[in-house]
Write a structure and sequence with these properties.
The complex is a heterodimer of chains A (169) and B (417). Chain A has 169 residues and is mainly β. Chain A has two helices and six strands, in the order H-H-E-E-E-E-E-E. Chain A is globular, with a radius of gyration of 18 Å. In chain B, helix 10 runs parallel beside helix 13 and helix 11 packs across helix 13. Chain B starts with a helix and ends with a helix. The model of chain B has no long low-confidence stretch (mean pLDDT 84). Classes of the chains: A mainly beta (169), B alpha+beta (417). Chains A and B meet through strand 2 and strand 3 of A and helix 2, helix 9 and helix 10 of B.
Chain lengths: 169, 417
């Protein structure tokens, strides 16, 4: 049997071994392979606030309801997260700054997505505007923004190093 | 004599037919390069029309429509926003800056935009590029006006020039009473700003005031003095550009605006709406692309046909080469080299031709459509097309090569008889 392993597999293997050995596996992971996270992981309660109670009787408030704080452990962690691109800035034909959201469009009757369910991304890997309708995997170092001035300024930002089209695996 | 010099000499001997074919291929390739360059330029220009603005506020309407009338000055607003609503929205803590835009008047076919001096600071295009003045400065007085680069060029306006604003978009009803004076000229941006005339939002209010009663009270009819002490707070604005403090609160602010109880309002994210508009045009672009590829294939077929046609005329030449020792492979290589050389020369010729056409038409494109076509951009879109062409060229050479290979055998047989 030939022992051919790819670099990626080697890294996974390595991080797996180190993960067992090291006391803080997340730090080791941050240095090697990105940690794949879900939107629920961004919420301290572990619940993704994707579908708040729908009130179809007249306009609701614009403000998202409840407490929406960030998860401090995620700060400076290399993560990989799936989502939709909401473009903000273009460089020629590519998107260079966007908001990554867990879903696309939203029913007018529900509050806007809370800030801890959004990631403000500036990317080193510009994304072609022709592919904007597709969901993507975004890889990069996540940062938490904590603000004293208001809830709306609290959330996540990321410097993305890699964006690839989402494929269900 | 090496094979390559033989190819050159052979081509030289048939220079009329060869140069005509080359020119035919080169012109169709040049056409493709020009169309691609203009298309890319237009699209890029379009996506870079507005930058740094997080939200555009307007009366309740479609996203695309709001973007079109507020930024591109295409079509008209369905409704204005009352000044009261504007101020309510502006009071939102999450909003960093807000700039009102008042549309509806024109000056000799160019749109008049009523706004505040902050517009020149906050309206960004491209990659967060600010507007700059080529001469003069932003408006200070009530009847000061700032003109875009295309307006200044077309109407030969300089700082200090007087102009009159007309009501409506094309009109014979001019607000004759108030001549405006140019206080500044903006540099070209390749955006609708170039084709706009900017005045203060108070001036818009002033020119729509019924001044007949005022005129009776004073002898001084010259503009500003007339409105001294008068309240020129606008009653309504057409749209507003908004920057938020934190990008993450964009949706919050948008939702608050959409749910504003006193008036139906809407707010859009310009980036999202630009991308939506782009998706609509993408269908047309795909169609254009297919046509362009078809043109490439057609020109290659033309080259193939020309080579095959000359083969019969060169039967003797090839037969002689066979008798002096050239193998069928030599003949095949000869024809293939000829095809590749022809393709390369055509490609180079096309690049030169396309650049000439673009240089000639560039000022017109910039004037009429507001975007500059650079040679680097032409080279970029040209090189990918030409690379594709060069990959296909050997395939086009294959037909004459096979034909020559076979015919040379037939010729040999004929000589043996």
């Amino acid at each position: 049997m030939t022992m051919i392993i790819t670099r990626r597999q080697a890294l996974q293997l390595l991080s797996g071994v180190l993960g067992v050995v090291a006391a803080t596996p997340s730090l080791v992971l941050a240095a090697s392979t990105p940690k794949t996270i879900e939107w629920a992981d961004l919420s301290p309660t572990g619940e993704a606030v994707l579908l708040p109670p729908v009130v179809h009787s007249g306009p609701g408030t614009g403000q998202p309801q409840g407490e929406f704080m960030v998860v401090p452990e995620l700060d400076a962690m290399l993560v990989r997260i799936p989502g939709f691109i909401i473009p903000l800035e273009f460089d020629e034909l590519d998107v260079v700054e966007f908001i990554l959201a867990p879903y696309k469009g939203a029913c007018i009757h529900v509050p806007a997505p809370p800030p801890n369910q959004l990631v403000h991304v500036i990317t080193d890997d510009p994304f072609p505007s022709a592919k904007l309708i597709r969901p993507v995997w975004v890889t990069g170092v996540l940062h938490t923004i904590t603000s004293q001035t208001g809830l709306a300024a609290t959330g996540y930002s990321m410097r993305a190093s890699r964006i690839e089209l989402y494929q269900r695996s | 004599m090496s094979l390559s010099t033989l190819v050159l000499k052979s081509l030289q001997a048939r220079r009329l037919a060869v140069s005509l074919t080359m020119f035919a291929i080169a012109s169709s390739l040049a056409l493709i390069i020009v169309v691609e360059t203009v298309r890319e330029g237009a699209r890029q220009n379009f996506l870079n029309t507005i930058s740094s603005t997080d939200l555009i506020l307007g009366a309740r309407t479609g996203d695309v429509q709001l973007l079109l009338y507020s930024i591109f000055h295409l079509g008209n607003a369905s409704n204005n926003i009352t000044w009261k609503s504007y101020q309510d929205i502006a009071a939102n803590d999450e909003i960093d800056w807000i700039v009102p835009v008042s549309l509806g008047d024109s000056h000799r076919g160019y749109r008049v935009v009523g706004t505040t001096p902050e517009f020149f600071q906050h309206y960004n295009y491209g990659q967060r590029e600010q507007l700059t003045f080529s001469s003069g400065k932003q408006f200070a007085g009530l009847f000061d006006v700032v003109v875009g680069a295309a307006v200044a060029k077309d109407l030969a306006y300089e700082v200090g020039a007087k102009l009159i604003v007309a009501h409506g978009l094309e009109s014979f009803v001019e607000h004759m009473e108030f001549p405006f004076q140019v206080s500044g000229v903006l540099n070209a941006t390749g955006t609708p700003v170039d084709r706009s005339v900017f005045v203060s939002i108070e001036a818009i209010q002033a020119i729509h005031t019924n001044i007949a009663p005022l005129q009776n009270n004073t002898n001084d009819l010259s503009g500003e003095a007339l409105f001294d002490g008068m309240d020129l707070t606008p009653q309504s604005v057409t749209a507003a550009l908004i920057g938020v403090r934190s990008k993450l609160s964009i949706f919050n602010v948008q939702r608050q605006i959409n749910k504003y109880p006193n008036e139906p309002l809407s707010a859009i994210l310009p980036g999202v709406t630009l991308a939506e508009l782009y998706q609509i045009t993408a269908v047309v672009e795909t169609a254009l692309r297919i046509i362009l590829w078809a043109v490439i294939v057609a020109s290659l077929l033309g080259m193939s046909a020309m080579l095959v046609a000359t083969l019969s005329a060169r039967e003797r030449e090839l037969a002689i080469m066979r008798t002096i020792g050239a193998s069928p492979w030599h003949i095949a290589a000869l024809i293939m080299m000829e095809a590749l050389l022809l393709a390369t020369l055509s490609a180079l010729c096309a690049l030169v031709l396309a650049n000439i056409v673009l240089s000639v038409s560039s000022p017109t494109l910039e004037d009429r459509y507001g975007f500059a076509v650079t040679h680097s951009r032409a080279l970029a879109s040209g090189s990918s097309i030409l690379a594709f062409f060069m990959i296909l060229a050997p395939l086009a050479g294959l037909v004459p090569v096979i034909s020559a290979y076979r015919n040379s055998l037939a010729a040999r047989l004929a000589f043996n008889n």
